[in-house]
Amino acid sequence: MKDFPGTPGTLTGLGLRILQCIFAASAITAMATTSSFFDFTAFCYLIASMGLQVVWSFGLALVDAYALVKKDVLNHSFLISLFVVGDWVTAILSLAAASATAGIIVLLTHDLKGNHCLGDCQQYQVSVVLAFLSWITIATSSLIMLWLVAAG
């Protein structure tokens, strides 16, 4: 297997994992600090999906940091296959949660004229933007992992 930027055990791989974790945790924080996020299932789904993203990304960031300390690039086929499956599952869940939440926010702000937001519309929107940023970073990692499997 080749040593692409973003490969597990490289500095860019660690950077991607840290960004995923930060964006997902920020999306959770922005959504959970609103007064009525629990009124909408999509908002709860966003928190659950981003929570899974935080756990997955933090775990892989620790693996990347360990590999960097040991100066070892993690390119074992079994390990890469595990990363591919985990990244693709979390990427799909993150995209679905961010899209569902964005749809509800469009409904609340434009179709219902913001009457149901109770002043939390901006926090909902910030949470969705952060969720999409998290998805962009996990999608990048997913494509890199798939590239590694194809190159292997």
General description of the model:
The chain has helices spanning 11-32, 41-70, 77-111, 121-151. It contains four helices and no strands. Helix 1 runs antiparallel to helix 4, helix 2 runs antiparallel to helix 3 and helix 3 packs antiparallel against helix 4 (121-151). The protein has 152 residues and is mainly alpha-helical. The protein is 78% helix and 0% strand.
Layout of helices and strands:
Layout: H1 11-32, H2 41-70, H3 77-111, H4 121-151
Helix pairs in contact: 1-2, 1-4, 2-3, 3-4
Name the average pLDDT: 87
Total count of strands: 0
Instruction: Sketch the topology as an H/E string, one letter per element.
Output: HHHH
The helix/strand class is mainly alpha
The biggest beta sheet, please? Answer: none
Query: Which regions contain 5 or more consecutive residues with pLDDT less than 50?
Result: none
- What share of residues is helical? over 70%
Task: Note the beta-strand portion.
Answer: under 5%
Please compute the radius of gyration using only Cα atoms. Answer: 17 Å
Total helix count?
A: 4
Quaternary structure: single chain
Shape: elongated
First-last Cα distance: 5 Å
Task: Tell me briefly what this model is.
This protein has about 150 residues and is mainly alpha-helical. About 80% of the residues lie in helices and about 0% in strands.
Which labels suit this protein?
152 residues, mainly alpha, 4 helices, 78% helix
